[in-house]
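Need the bound structure for zinc ion, inputs here:
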Amino acid sequence: MEQRDRSEEQQARTCAWCGRQESDPARTLAWTTAVERGRAVTFCDRCSREHLRAMEGKLDSEFW
Ligand SMILES: [Zn+2]
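Answer from helper R.:
Posting the output first, comments after.
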């Protein structure tokens, strides 16, 4: 059935930053999902940290 194929695709997540793919739900627990330009993007655990740092750095530079 087509619906089964779709649910399997949803379980596999792709990092929008490095393109890394992970289909194991236990490993994507640390992944984060953000909404950018009205579109949901997923970052792996490693890229999430770098992304957060980049965002914090941006905020800091804007505040100062
Ligand atoms: Zn990544």
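Comments: Residues 45-63 form the longest helix (19 residues). The radius of gyration is 15 Å.
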